[in-house]
Amino acid sequence: MEEHQRDLLAAIGIEANLELVAAKAAAEAKPTLSRGDRFVQGLAALARFVEREQHLRVPRPHKEPVETVEAGPGGEQVVVSHFALGTWLNNQKSRRAKLTPGQLAQLAGHGVEWA
Known about the structure:
Radius of gyration: 21 Å
Helix content: 40-55%
Number of strands: 2
């Protein structure tokens, strides 16, 4: 929005919601992941799940904790996010016709029967 437009809105008492402005800036600052990167994340999360649980029966609502190191104002910090592993695995199965032979081989290498 142009500065004169913001001035007109401010003149009639409408001001920007600073929380929304900050949330938008944070969302735009987040790097987006390619499908390939997302697939690699899914495989890593699947490997951690199988190692811990000793089976491949991932419940659809399961979210696998994922630790990443991010640079912040006070240096590097470990951030824990949750990868929707159950949903991801279900989506891979339903879209398996679109997966590359390499991706199918990687899934099969992790013990996925339908790959």
